[in-house]
Amino acid sequence: MTRDRVCGDIRETEIGSVITIAGWVFRRRDHGGLIFIDLRDRSGLCQIVFSPDVAEDAHEKAHGLRAEYVIAVTGEIRKRPEGTENPNIPTGMIEMYVQKLEVMNEASPLPYNMEEAAEAGESLRLKHRYLDLRRPEMQKNLIMRHRISKITRDYLDEKGFLEIETPILTKSTPEGARDYLVPSRLNPGHFYALPQSPQLFKQILMVAGLEKYFQIVKCFRDEDLRADRQPEFTQIDLEMSFIDRDDILLLIEGMMKDIFKKVLDIDIETPFARMSFQESMNRFGNDKPDLRFGLELKDMADLAGQGTFKVFLDALNSGGMVKAINGKGMAGLSRKEIDNLTAEAQSFGAKGLAWIKVKKGFDSPIAKFFPEEVLKNMAERLQAEDGDLMLFVADKPKIVYDVLSRMRLELGKRLDLIEPGYKFVWIIDFPLFEWDEEEGRFQAMHHPFTSPVEEDIEKLSSPDTDLSKLKAKAYDIVLNGYEIGGGSIRIHRQDIQKKMFGRLNISDEDAKLKFGFLLDALQFGAPPHGGIALGLDRLVMLMVGASSIRDVIAFPKTQKASCMMSGAPSNVEMKQLRELHIKTDIVLEE
Question: Would 541 be classed as within a structural domain?
């Protein structure tokens, strides 16, 4: 039986027609004489009715149908009787009276009820991902992902970009996350690396004169995982020649506007706001601010220094900072509730959490350490009114920023302050270098091919330059508190690239060994160029309103980087290891 229609497309205009549809049994209701089944395929549901008066054989066979059986049915489309319509689904005004039934495949008893699948444990759903993907919610997510990818391709094609594939088996390079390594059978003792990004290759394409490149590409990073991170993920990757920062920012704004209009029918406002890295850190404590609500961090160093509270003074005297946020309406919290809040701050890395209630005055164990006027100035700076709770953290800048930024997000959710909608912002003017405490040296904040701003190029050569003050031509695009993309203008001159490597303590020999093919290419007329990579998984997650990128990837990994369905990673036969000239201390099953 070949189907004539898909289940979700049948409408009242087809009443009286005899057609064939096919799909999965979703619900079954036996009303004695009549058997009702909701038949489901990717397009939606259609109610089919088995009546002994229409087809006795089909009615008899329908008694044996169970959830997720695959069936095909032929029958007449009729209008539902008055009072039985279902306005919540597109096919809710019609039903099919079945004349012929074919059971195409049976299904074993299910590991969970498909109607309650969303409440089933994630591990169970991931193990039976083929069932989880039958859910309309999951199919909707993947359909939206497809549409976003197609619109992206069409938009970039119209802008003159070429979709060009880059290698999956490539060379391991440093200055990034941990690589996934692939042993080479033909070159014993040598390894390929799976690409963390196509960075070097897309720059080579610019040197090659292709001018505008893009691809929707898989990337791989062996790093600790979380809800918005996977070991293999998908980037919308692009690079352009003969441009500067604003060209890329405007291009991406146009692409986002196109995607949101065509997928969600939302007109997003452009141009997007722009904010320097330092402003973002000062106001929000991180470089991916959620602009849908306030609760901004306020610097309290000058006011904290006017009191005698030792914790604040010790932090300031050791080069730290004191910052605060305003817990709106939280002055009514009990001491136990505040202790729980303090424990939460400590779990984020703080030594403690100082607080002052604003309640027709100031109520706090630390209030006695400050003159009344200073307390009033603190409240004024935080715009704290009666009923609010001022929350302070004093420590090294990194800890203060991290703790208060996380507390801000938690309070934003708890106090229901986050407005619906989509708020984009560009973060610009990043530092070129950042200090690595473990290594005891400066590292590239993004990667070593990021160009300094024009006024800082000459400073790269000076031994007296404070590297922490140099700025990069780098930019991140942030949506609702998530970094969904980042890029930079690249170094296209070999002499500047050599200075950059020198500042990173990468010798000429090491640079040649690790990045030789790019350095060679820069000798032969490399044009000015730059690009960006957008995280497709995160973008789709935010657009569908999911809480994890696992809900927008067909076959994701768990937080331990394993696939519950296929069992990857798994043992391999010793024969395979011997062919790859690999020995292991771990005993594997033969």
Answer: yes
Q: Are 227 and 548 in contact (CB under 8 A)?
A: yes
Mean pLDDT for the stretch of residues 28-47: 94
Q: What is the pLDDT, as a whole number, of residue 441? A: 82
The answer to whether 100 and 75 have CB atoms below 8 angstroms apart is yes
Q: Which structural domain range is residue 375 located in? A: 293-414
Q: What is the CATH number of the domain that holds 94?
A: 2.40.50.140
Taking the C-alpha atoms of residue 543 and residue 534, their distance in angstroms, rounded to an integer, is: 14
Domain assignment present for residue 157? The answer is yes
Say how many domains are in the chain: 3
Give yes or no for a contact between 363 and 356, defined as CB atoms under 8 angstroms apart: yes
Q: What is the pTM of this model?
A: 0.91
Among 78, 212, 88, which Cα is nearest to 157's? 212
Average pLDDT over residues 292-299: 95
Residues 379-407, mean pLDDT to the nearest whole number: 95
pLDDT per position as a tens digit, 229-244: 899 999 999 999 999 9
* Same structural domain, 229 and 145: yes
Residue-averaged pLDDT of the chain: 93
| Alpha-carbon span 44 to 88, nearest angstrom | 12
Question: Encoding tokens for residue 334?
Answer: 């009990």
Q: How many helices (H) and strands (E) does the chain have?
A: 16, 22
Does 271 share its domain with 371?
A: no
By the 8 A CB rule, do 46 and 7 touch?
Answer: yes
